[in-house]
Amino acid sequence: ESHPNPSSVSNRMQEPVIRRAETSDAQTVAELGARTFVETFGYLYPPQDLADFLAQAYGLESAKADLADPAKATWLVEAGGQAVGFALAGPCGLPHDEVTPACGELKRLYLLKDWQNGGTGRRLFTEVMAWLERDGHRDLWIGVWSENFGAQRFYARQGFSKVGEYGFRVGSTTDHEFILRRVAQRTSTDA
Fold it and tell me: CA 136 to CA 10: how far, in whole Å?
């Protein structure tokens, strides 16, 4: 019979707190970004390719730059005094002909495995979408790995549909990625 780790049980009892990250959180964001990427996708890449990518994409300088950019926002999910997830959003940088400067993108949304499938990801996603649409409805975009079926199903339930594909480089590996879009949700009060 398996007994759960008491510390993880007590941490799970607390409702995780979602908050906007600040520049002083750069180290936490960088470390959590690298940890969640490795936990989710690390097995896909040769070790040196993974190390080089993590240094570039999830290094401290990258986190500091994202946190200092007024066009972007980062959130942390904390439980029991520990960061267990994060998200990053900002202007859309996906390679698609219909992307305009007005488009927003959910760039990253990761939770440690122990915190997945408990509603926290949906709460974090909802906060990010509200921020992306704080000035009104606009087209929203997401890039997702072609074999991340759980994320694809979740995004489809949120109104996103596949509109393109591209290659995402991690060293010598090129991942097959899908481009998802949710068209601006216009209402009768929109001009």
Answer: 40
The rounded average pLDDT for each run of 10 residues, N- to C-terminus, in the chain (191 residues) is 44 79 96 93 91 92 96 96 95 96 96 90 95 94 94 95 95 94 73 48
Cα separation, 172 vs 48, whole angstroms: 10
Please give the span between the terminal C-alpha atoms of the chain, in angstroms, as a whole number.
61
Provide the residue count of the chain: 191
**Which residues fall within 8 angstroms of residue 162, CB to CB, at 6 or more apart?**
152, 178, 179, 180
Which residue in 113, 173, 103, 174 sits closest to 142, CA to CA?
103
Q: DSSP label at 14? A: S
pTM of the model: 0.86
Q: Are 180 and 141 in contact (CB under 8 A)?
A: yes
Q: Using CA atoms, how far apart are residues 129 and 139, in angstroms rounded to an integer? A: 11
CA–CA separation, 174 vs 119, rounded Å? 31
